[in-house]
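Before a computer can learn anything about folding, someone has to put a protein's shape into writing. The three-dimensional part falls to structure tokens, numbers that each stand for a local backbone shape. The protein below has been through that process, and both of its lines are reproduced in full.
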Amino acid sequence: MSFVDWHRIFMEHDIKQLLEKNLEVSQESLRLMQKMHRAAMWAKFFGLLKWAIIIGGTVWGYLVIQPYLNQLLGLGNSIPQGFDVGGLLKGLGK
């Protein structure tokens, strides 16, 4: 065998080792990217869930409190027009 043949054999062996190492690194990168994608999807899901709870809770709270608000507003409308608070306060001082 000549020097060129030996050189080609060693080069092929080195290239094979480099390709195997590259494959291992690529597979590990793929696993990490899949984990990152999964984490991003869960973060998006819980973000949407958080806003659904906030908005849903606000609407539910308003619907529960609405009858009481209507009663309070009804009391405000039942006070006669021209009600004299100053006269009431003078009467308390007597």
Notes: The longest helix spans residues 3-78. The chain has one domain: 3-76. The helical segments are 3-78, 85-93.
